[in-house]
Amino acid sequence: LSPGAKMGCFTFIKVMMILFNLVIFLSGGTLLGVGIWVKVDGQSFVSIFGTLSSSVLQVVNVSYVLIVIGSILLVIGFLGCYGAQKESKCLLMMFFSVVLIIFIAEVAVAVVALVYTSLAESLLTAVVTPVLKEKYGVDNTFTHIWNVTMREVHCCGLNNYTDFNKSYWYETYGTYPEPCFAALPPLAHPHLCGCLLQGCFGQILEEIRTNAAVAGGVAAGIAALEIAAMAVSMYLYCRLDEK
């Protein structure tokens, strides 16, 4: 390519890098702002977005998740946008390094999730089952989350119906939750629910396997964007030596 063509290509990629990272920066700022809002005034957030948001807040500390993700996106967006604008080799290298670390972490998590599914199940069982025994039937929001999950996924408990043994619900009512019987044949005995319904963890894993192509496509798309971002940052970094 002629020097003019090379310079035009460099300018185009630089502008795309700035715009792309500006979007990331603004998205990160939005998530960070929402995270701080949820942390400071969670009730206002719930009143606006309704019961689902309340359910989510009971399961995951959404404010911290949003603050962490928003902060990471802010850093990435700033490094990429400002680094490209100022043609700073230091900032471009930092951008490349941060994206590379995130990419490696995602690959590591994916590998662990695929290879150590049984370990993940054991950890979830150790954490979730005691909470299920203690809070189901006591905390209305927590109970509602599990009822909706069990009805929609056609499951009972995390592993199976025995997760409710010696629970507050079973000790109080002497039976298993109603959603555990929802998918049973009309004449089936209630205590057969354990034989006919799987635990929610297994059912969700099955759903993930069924939709593996979609999940894999989304993961591949994110990975492709990260690789493209790293390649563009390295292209700009190397071209700065030639200017």
UniProtKB/TrEMBL annotation:
CDD domains, A to Z: uroplakin_I_like_LEL
Recorded hits in PROSITE patterns, A to Z, give:
TM4_1
One Pfam family hit: Tetraspanin
Keyword vocabulary terms for this entry: Glycoprotein, Lysosome, Membrane, Transmembrane, Transmembrane helix
Q: What's the protein's topology in the membrane?
A: Multi-pass membrane protein
Predominant cellular place of this UniProt entry's protein? membrane
Superkingdom assignment: Eukaryota
Q: Where in the cell is it found?
A: Lysosome membrane; Membrane
GO (cellular component) term, any one: lysosomal membrane
Q: Which family does it belong to?
A: Belongs to the tetraspanin (TM4SF) family.
Q: Please give the PANTHER family that the UniProt record associates with this protein.
A: TETRASPANIN, TETRASPANIN-1
Q: What does this protein do?
A: Structural component of specialized membrane microdomains known as tetraspanin-enriched microdomains (TERMs), which act as platforms for receptor clustering and signaling. Participates thereby in diverse biological functions such as cell signal transduction, adhesion, migration and protein trafficking. Regulates neuronal differentiation in response to NGF by facilitating NGF-mediated activation of NTRK1/TRKA receptor tyrosine kinase and subsequent downstream signaling pathways. Plays a role in the inhibition of TNFalpha-induced apoptosis.
Q: How does it assemble?
A: Interacts with SLC19A2. Interacts with NTRK1/TRKA.
How is this protein named in the record?
Tetraspanin
Q: Which gene encodes it?
A: Tspan1
